[in-house]
């Protein structure tokens, strides 16, 4: 008997074979990989991932789905190819289950309402994945890629850590129950912290990690300040964190117009602004 989707958890179960194949191929998943799947639901994507020979760690929040998944994948759980975990992934620590930095892939059909939280957690996570392949609302995916050149906090947040690309669009009819909007598969590859490198080297790995996190936090503080009031020029918005004189000086040095809006400023310039306003590099 099929599980009844819970609206409160944003559950929409994928039914498209084409979309399933595209998710696996978008992550280039193979037998040498370890894959984290968020919200396996009834297990259709889980099955496709396991078919590649990859080891899968599936984190499911809905307690009612656990028995179904245990029954469906009893042999894979017994063999150790699949590890099924009941938990809230936003409160979950990848390191506790052997997932280390850049050594696993995240592939998931995630609830729309936690899209931003998922990106924030796993892109800034100490043990971040090598890539993320997520099935999300098409409008959100389009905004992240920002093909029109208009950036947002979300697009810049993702691009600061990796390269986003829409692989295919997925119609609402591909799900049960069908959502009110279409979706898209977004692949974020080449995930790293290269934009937030700390020099000179810190005296210990722990201090280095703390400095890196402080650098990332400062970047986002500057970014949020810049986007604080959409109708205002970015130079005016940044007066919350820096003097008008310093802003004028920095903008002139970087070749940014004082009439610029936050959405018109590229990621490299935002990184340069963060450094100019006090971040260590």
Describe the overall structure.
The structure is a single chain. The chain is an alpha/beta fold and 281 residues long. The chain has 2 domains: 186 residues, Rossmann fold (3-Layer(aba) Sandwich), CATH 3.40.50.150; 82 residues, Helicase, Ruva Protein, domain 3. About 2% of the residues have low confidence. The chain is 36% helix and 17% strand. It has a 7-stranded mixed beta sheet. Strands 1-8 form a two-stranded antiparallel ribbon. The radius of gyration is 21 Å and the shape is globular. Helix 8 packs across helix 11. The N and C termini lie far apart (56 Å).
Keyphrases for this structure?
281 residues; alpha/beta; Rossmann fold; Helicase, Ruva Protein, domain 3; seven-stranded mixed β-sheet; 11 helices
Summarize the structure.
It is built from 11 helices and 9 strands.
Secondary structure topology:
Layout: E1 13-14, H1 17-26, E2 34-38, H2 44-50, E3 55-60, H3 66-72, H4 74-79, E4 82-86, E5 105-109, H5 115-124, E6 131-137, H6 138-145, H7 153-159, E7 163-170, E8 175-176, E9 183-189, H8 205-226, H9 234-237, H10 244-254, H11 267-276
Parallel strand pairs: 2-3, 2-5, 3-4, 5-6
Antiparallel strand pairs: 1-8, 6-9, 7-9
């Amino acid at each position: 008997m099929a599980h009844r989707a819970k609206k409160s958890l944003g559950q929409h179960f994928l039914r498209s074979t084409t979309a399933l194949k595209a998710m696996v191929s978008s992550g280039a998943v193979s037998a040498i990989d370890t894959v984290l799947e968020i919200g396996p639901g009834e297990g259709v994507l889980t099955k496709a991932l396991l078919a590649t020979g990859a080891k899968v760690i599936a984190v499911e929040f809905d307690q009612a789905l656990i028995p179904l998944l245990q029954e469906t994948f009893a042999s894979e759980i017994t063999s150790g190819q699949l590890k099924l975990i009941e938990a809230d992934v936003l409160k979950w620590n990848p390191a506790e289950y052997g997932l280390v930095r850049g050594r696993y892939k995240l592939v998931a059909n995630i609830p729309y309402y936690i899209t931003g939280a998922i990106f924030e957690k796993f892109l800034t996570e100490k043990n971040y994945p090598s890539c993320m392949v997520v099935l999300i609302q098409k409008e959100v995916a389009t905004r992240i890629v920002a093909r029109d050149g208009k950036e947002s906090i979300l697009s810049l947040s993702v691009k600061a850590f990796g390269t986003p690309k829409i692989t295919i669009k997925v119609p609402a009819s591909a799900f049960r129950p069908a959502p009110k909007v279409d979706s898209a598969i977004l692949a974020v590859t080449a995930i790293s912290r290269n934009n937030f490198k700390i020099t000179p080297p810190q005296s210990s790995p722990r201090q280095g990690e703390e400095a890196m996190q402080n650098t990332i936090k400062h970047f986002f503080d500057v970014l949020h300040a810049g986007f604080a009031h959409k109708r205002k020029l970015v130079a005016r918005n940044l007066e919350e964190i820096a003097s008008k004189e310093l802003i004028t000086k920095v903008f002139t040095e970087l070749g940014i117009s004082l009439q610029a809006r936050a959405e018109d400023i590229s990621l490299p310039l935002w990184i340069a602004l963060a450094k100019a306003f006090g971040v260590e590099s």
